[in-house]
């Protein structure tokens, strides 16, 4: 069957067509219209502007996804859409568009959780993947570890108690003058500095929990920037990037290792926008090698928000017979 996936939870308008037979999934198209250039002017995502940009883009992006796939609306078996969590105004654009499309064409509608969709990107890689496994989702809004027992059933076993890793990367990037979003630019800059040159706390909480806290790390890095500037000294941006990245990466690796040992899983799926971070990818590859664990990491193009991951997650909900109807609403918070 062909399934259309629609994603508008933050600052990318995306639509994709996935061909699914049994457990095998093939991306026929995956169109992503990014609003990053627009939001860069403001140093972060402006929700109202994001909603308007989604409205302007969604029809063309969907038409292009169908065209590129060579699939007509009448060939589709279902429409899947991100319904939660995310920016409420942005989500509502995708949800209402998908509802109209499904209703007008007599197609089943499937509501998708954005976090589950990031994990479902793992099914779109070259490495064969089947539950159960451990999933680590690191994005602009989330940093969580999930015990994935089934294609649709997740149990959160660890999470950040405050800021997400991506949010922290973006904040530090902004204060040292890197273009929004700071994550990708910090990733590159971190190769030029010295790890440990700036002393920073770990985001990993104590040994009795799998939770994280990024606010202390973020505040320590901001205090370092402010006090350096107050002394009239230039901020050593590369050293800060290296030290900050190492702190984030080590903290995440420590909790991932603890979660692997605790659950006994032999597969780790890394997902979310921050999964594009080259230091994190390398560190987790070493960790998995050490423990004889298979690491599944989507290509960078599938780490950020995209419709293909939504279609993949939607397909598994579809197989379970979990359908939405025209009463579907969006929600800013998780509805697992
Ligand atoms: O998953 P995503 O596209 O959107 C959310 O669902 O939040 O994640 C976006 C986040 C941003 O914070 C961005 O800075 C971060 O992913 N990011 C990175 C890298 N590329 C994107 N963070 C660290 N290193 C990167 N290479
Ligand atoms: Zn996302």
Walk me through this protein's architecture:
This protein has 336 residues and is of the alpha/beta class. The chain folds into 2 domains: 2-121 and 302-319, 2-Layer Sandwich (Nucleotidyltransferase, domain 5); 127-297, ATPase, nucleotide binding domain (Nucleotidyltransferase, domain 5). It has 11 helices and 10 strands. The protein has helices spanning 36-40, 47-69, 88-105, 114-120, 165-175, 182-189, 215-230, 237-263, 278-291, 300-303, 307-319; strands spanning 2-7, 12-21, 24-34, 76-84, 109-113, 133-138, 143-148, 154-159, 267-271, 294-296. The strands form 2 sheets. It has a 5-stranded mixed sheet, with helices on both faces. Strands 8-7-6-9-10 form a 5-stranded mixed sheet, sandwiched between helices. Helix 2 runs parallel beside helix 3 (88-105) and helix 4 (114-120) packs across helix 11. The chain is globular and about 65 Å long. The model has no long low-confidence stretch (mean pLDDT 97). Bound molecules: 5'-O-[(R)-(carboxyoxy)(hydroxy)phosphoryl]adenosine and zinc ion (ZN).
């Amino acid at each position: 069957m062909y399934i259309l996936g629609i994603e508008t939870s933050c600052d990318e308008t995306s639509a994709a067509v996935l061909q699914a037979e049994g457990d095998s999934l093939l991306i026929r198209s995956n169109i992503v219209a990014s609003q990053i250039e627009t939001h860069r002017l403001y140093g972060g995502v402006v929700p109202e502007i994001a909603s308007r940009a989604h409205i302007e883009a969604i029809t063309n992006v969907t038409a292009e996804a169908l065209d590129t796939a060579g699939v007509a609306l009448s060939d589709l078996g279902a429409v899947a859409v991100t319904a939660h969590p995310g920016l409420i105004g942005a989500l509502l654009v995708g949800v209402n568009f998908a509802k109209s499309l499904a209703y007008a064409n007599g197609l089943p509608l499937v509501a998708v959780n954005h976090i589950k969709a990031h994990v479902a990107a793992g099914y779109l890689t070259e490495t064969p993947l089947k539950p159960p496994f451990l999933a680590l989702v690191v994005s602009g809004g989330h940093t969580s570890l999930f015990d994935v027992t089934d294609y649709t059933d997740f149990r959160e076993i660890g999470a950040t108690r405050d800021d997400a890793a991506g949010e922290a990367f973006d904040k530090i990037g902004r204060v040292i003058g890197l273009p929004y979003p700071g994550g990708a630019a910090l990733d590159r800059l971190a190769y030029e500095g010295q790890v440990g040159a700036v002393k920073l706390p770990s985001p990993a909480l104590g040994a009795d929990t799998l939770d994280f806290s990024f606010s202390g790390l973020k505040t320590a890095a901001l205090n370092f920037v402010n006090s350096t500037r107050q002394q009239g000294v230039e901020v050593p941006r590369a050293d800060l990037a290296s030290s900050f990245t190492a702190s984030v990466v080590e903290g995440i690796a420590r909790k991932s290792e603890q979660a692997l040992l605790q659950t006994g899983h032999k597969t780790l799926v890394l997902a979310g926008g921050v999964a594009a971070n080259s230091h994190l990818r390398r560190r987790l590859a070493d960790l998995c090698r050490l423990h004889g664990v298979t690491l599944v990491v989507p290509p960078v193009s599938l780490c950020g928000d995209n419709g293909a991951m939504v279609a993949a997650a939607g397909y598994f909900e579809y197989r379970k017979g979990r359908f939405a109807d025209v009463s579907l609403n969006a929600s800013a918070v998780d509805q697992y």
